[in-house]
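User: Before I run my own analysis I want an independent prediction to cross-check against. Here's the chain; please return only the structure tokens and, at the end, one sentence I can use as a sanity check.
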Amino acid sequence: MKFMIIRKADSSTEAGIMPSQELLSTMGDYNAAMAEAGVLVTGEGLKPSDKASRISFSNGQPVVTDGPFTETREIIAGYTMIQTTTRDEALEWVKRWPEDDVELELREVFELSDFEPGDGLQKHVDLTEKLQKRPGTVCNYLLFNGNCREAFEFYADLLGGDIVMSLTGAESPIKDEISDLMQDKVMHVCLSIGNWLLMGSDCPPELFEKPQGFHVQIGIDDPLQAEHTFQRLAEGGTVLMPFEKTFWAEKFGMVVDRFGTPWMINCGQCIQG
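Assistant: Structure tokens:
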């Protein structure tokens, strides 16, 4: 059973008064306890209603009213989603809320099984199943023949990213099981570029295979930046397709860089969907 704990607004939350460090710490302990018990789903605090809007519909037409709103007791200041086996269990967690002077409301969330089967419900079932299949992340994982560190330092500089994790064989928990040849090689590296991740590692020489059957595809809107990126990737590498106008893009090119990684660079969009 899934429940929402609704934290009602008050004069302090509507005034934008932020919680003290003591309360943040206590709330953190409370959330950690729920997470440890396996009941915490998520939780968020909401900004005051002077940063909110209400949208009402009249004859199908939306009417927007900007805050602030005066009915404080009807305003929500935050919520926590929990999942428990019974309503009584949910109530016990609500009773442990760490604030002294606060009004909370516990509401059970509808499950899909609560609704009558039919074509309308099936749309929601299909969407739920589709979203459940989606992985948290999808990224390329590149293998190198001993030059992973140099390659990723180059990619970070070229693509404006940050190496958020890098581990050598000697730094790993299984360093005693790793050959002397691989001790100073990269066992895992992760490059963050906005919302995109690129990962890689060095591969034992006897297991390394030349990359084939794929390209790392990146899109760059600015033509000058796209050209610059392509040319730098091409330095010491091999151009498979010059960076030129195509029927689907303002500019497109294919290149294998000096580390052996194949790339596709798209710039602009010619085809209108």
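Sanity check: The helical segments are 11-14, 21-37, 87-95, 119-133, 148-159, 223-234.
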